[in-house]
Design goal:
heterodimer, A: 382 residues, alpha/beta, Rossmann fold, 3 domains, five-stranded parallel β-sheet, 58% helix, B: 345 residues, 5 strands, elongated, P-loop_NTPase (chain A), DNA polymerase III subunit delta (chain A), DNA-directed DNA polymerase activity (chain A), 3'-5' exonuclease activity (chain A), AAA+_ATPase (chain A)
């Protein structure tokens, strides 16, 4: 089993990466792009494994069995750093630290590899700090950046990287992976792969988590219940509250555990009061958690909006008689009657309203307001 | 502790007409008593009552000894010492502030004193709110203390009342529209309002009309995002725009103004087209009854289509004030104009 096995439907990219790994001096900076769920960071990690592979001949690199491959895939290789941010954007201080690390020589492997997930989550100022390091890294350093599309990173970064384009894997490839790797039944895997539209991570979660399936179902059915403005405003409030509570529930659990660990690390008993000189540490932890929570709410809303888009995508498919498979096949009857009641032009306008809401949430518009404007745009015309 | 604020203290001569007992203006009729308990967060009113009672005692007696304590930094025995008869037989007034943060020493001494107050000593106590010393408050009430309500004035009508009484106390006349202009200009802080009244009373002569108020406080309108939103949602475009200009000119950020617009529009949208009673709606929508009523009043100017249009307009404005446009003020002005013109009056 080679390191490339878990990249379903990416034959072209895999061939490109294999060729590069077999070279003696691969390019020093790579930009992995592809829609969410296409496996950008997995592809980057597989490439990192192939670079560190100890196989006898260059053509066999990426064997998946040697010590180098296995430790990279497990995330324990000392010369491969994988960084991600849990906040809305990377902090400039963290990036500076990373640049320092990039100057080190590899300790055991051939290369020092730095994988940067979500390179699009960087303010322009932060990106500029990276420029020099990416342009002329030390001879043994390789940067692997990941972003949804080349346009999401600054042009000055883009021009310094070799692009690797990943595409949306087709449903069969995703289902096959879910069956093989996660041990799902073919029916479960097929359903999950279809409603997640090829997003591997979401597909796995939907297949495993009953609650996530129910939430998705509620979101997709939303347009069916909209009649008046008050419906729209109330539905928007519900959607935001649902996403917020979902994100907060997960964050709270984790936050409490972190606070407990910090108390342990500082030698404080279970419920002893925090002495004033240590308070700043707790405050810092709280701030980190707050930033993470904001990102959590935004991500959760964004996911809901993608789910909602599938409803109108199906309506449009029916209206235009495109004949392709419906994402929400199980709602076929409702979708047909909804399609009959409106025109393709209206459906397109509604899809536009949804993508506008996604853009606005990313631009820090109050989520509730963005949702209300969107729901108002989904109302049937009178 | 400082005595009551100096500005505008002049009218506290005790000849002001009495408000209804227990009403927010009832404090003007307080008479000296062995125990006077002031309750409520409005420091300015408390200061005025202290001054008023002190003044009344001084009118009656030749020599008055005033002692002031802060209940938070009180030391045991001070109260008894201050209340014990003086060698020269002066009248005694004891003023105690910050009962809400009282320490244990004060609590014990005050409880003991409340059980047997000295008849010829006036003790004034101000408690700004909260649960601290609840037992003492009970005990004081049982002992028959005079209770004075020091609640902040929230409604414009209460503030107008306050202005009218201030001028009556200084035997001056203010026309109703002048009083309204004064409240609109400086009404948010009671101390400031009282200072303005006193300034107008001393600096001018004759009847105080709108021109006089404009000369002193003209061009100053306290505008908040909510006032802008209320005017816009009720279709009063001129008022909405001029209030908006005032709000921006006095340093209100466009972001909270858009937030206020969004909130009001949301409330109107929620109740629009609903045929239920306001009480039922309040429960279902999680809004206060007065919010529902206000929203219902405004909803009569709105059609569903216009609401849809304006919801999108406000979302666009929010994006614009948060960086999508180079001129956030224009963005909020555009939203306010759009809303005010969409509401059909």
């Amino acid at each position: 089993m080679t390191v490339w096995a878990d990249l379903p439907g990416q034959e072209a990219a895999v061939a490109q990466l294999r060729r590069a790994a077999a070279e003696d001096a691969p390019t020093h900076a790579w930009l992995f792009t592809g829609p969410p769920g296409s496996g950008r960071s997995n592809a980057a990690r597989a490439f990192a494994a192939a670079l560190q592979c100890q196989a006898a001949t260059p053509a066999e690199r990426g064997c998946g069995t040697c010590h180098g491959c296995r430790t990279v895939l497990a995330g324990t290789h000392p010369d491969v750093a994988q960084v991600a941010t849990e906040n809305v954007t990377y902090a400039i201080a963290d990036v500076r630290e990373l640049i320092g690390k990039a100057q080190d020589k590899p300790s055991g492997g051939k290369w020092r590899v730095i994988i940067m997930e979500d390179a699009d989550r960087m303010a322009e100022r932060t990106t500029n700090v990276l420029l020099k390091a990416i342009e002329e890294p030390p001879p043994h350093t390789v940067w692997l950046l990941c972003a949804p599309s080349p346009a999401d990173v600054l042009i000055t970064i883009r021009s310094r990287c070799r692009p690797v384009g990943l595409r949306v894997p087709n449903t069969e490839a995703v289902a096959e992976l879910l069956v093989r790797r996660d041990g799902l039944t073919p029916e479960q895997a097929g359903f999950a792969a279809r409603i997640s539209q090829g997003h591997i991570g979401i597909a796995r979660r939907l297949a495993r988590d009953e609650g996530a399936r129910l939430r998705r179902d509620r979101t997709v059915r939303l347009p069916l219940g909209l009649r008046s403005v008050s419906d729209a405003v109330i539905a928007a409030g519900d959607l935001v509250e649902l996403s917020t509570s979902e994100a907060n529930a997960a964050a709270e659990e984790r936050g409490a555990a972190e606070a407990r660990r910090l108390r342990e690390a500082l030698g404080l008993a279970g419920d002893a009061p925090v002495p004033p000189q240590l308070r700043s540490q707790f405050k810092q932890l709280e701030e980190t958690q707050k930033r993470r929570a904001k990102r959590g709410v935004n991500d959760s809303l964004d996911r809901s909006l993608i789910d909602l888009t599938t409803f109108f995508r199906d309506v449009l498919t029916l209206q235009l008689k495109a004949g392709t498979e419906l994402v929400n096949e199980y709602l076929a009857a409702e979708l047909r009657s909804y399609a009959a009641r409106s025109t393709p032009e209206q459906t397109l306008a509604r899809i536009d309203a949804i993508s506008e809401a996604r853009v606005r949430i990313a631009a820090n518009v109050s989520p509730l307001l963005a949702m209300e404007a969107m729901m108002a745009g989904l109302l049937p015309p009178r | 502790m400082a005595a009551g604020r100096t500005a505008a203290g002049r009218s506290g001569t005790g000849k002001a007409s009495a408000g209804r007992p227990g009403s927010p203006t009832g404090w003007r009729s307080v008479e000296p008593a062995p125990l006077v308990l002031l309750q409520g967060p409005e420091e300015y009113v408390a200061g005025r009552v202290f001054e008023l009672v002190r003044g009344k005692v001084k009118e009656r007696e030749d020599a008055v000894e005033v002692t002031r304590f802060d209940a938070a930094t009180y030391q045991r025995g001070e109260l008894l010492m201050a209340a014990s008869p003086s060698l020269f037989g002066e009248a005694k007034v004891i003023e105690v502030r910050s009962l809400a943060a009282m320490n244990e020493d004060f609590l014990e001494d005050a409880l003991a004193y409340a059980a047997a107050p000295a008849g010829d000593v006036v003790v004034l106590l101000h408690h700004s709110g909260g649960n601290r010393g609840k037992k003492l408050l009970e005990r004081l009430r049982e002992a028959g203390a005079t209770l004075v309500d020091c609640q902040p004035l929230k409604k414009d009508s209460e503030k107008l009342d306050f202005v009218a009484q201030e001028f009556r106390a200084s035997r001056r006349k203010i026309l109703p529209e002048a009083a309204r202009a004064l409240v609109a200009a400086v009404g948010s802080d009671l101390a400031e309002l009282a200072a303005a009244c006193s300034q107008l009373a001393t600096d001018t002569s004759g009847e105080i009309d709108q021109d006089t108020v404009d000369r002193y406080y003209g061009g100053r309108v306290e505008a908040t995002g909510f006032k802008v939103a209320d005017a816009a949602l009720s279709g009063r475009a001129e008022t909405a725009l001029s209030t908006l200009r005032h709000a921006l000119a006095t340093g209100t950020d466009p972001v909270p103004i858009v937030a206020a617009l969004a909130m009001k529009l949301r409330q109107v949208a929620k109740v629009a087209g609903q045929r239920k009673s306001s009480g039922q709606l309040a429960k279902e929508l999680g809004m206060a009854p007065w919010q529902v009523q206000q929203a219902q009043e405004q909803a009569q100017y709105w059609t569903q289509d216009e609401l849809v249009k304006c919801l999108r307009l406000v979302a666009e404005a929010d994006a614009m004030v948060k960086g999508a446009s180079r001129d956030p003020e224009y963005a909020v002005e555009r939203a306010v104009t759009g809303i005010a013109l969409a509401a059909r009056r």
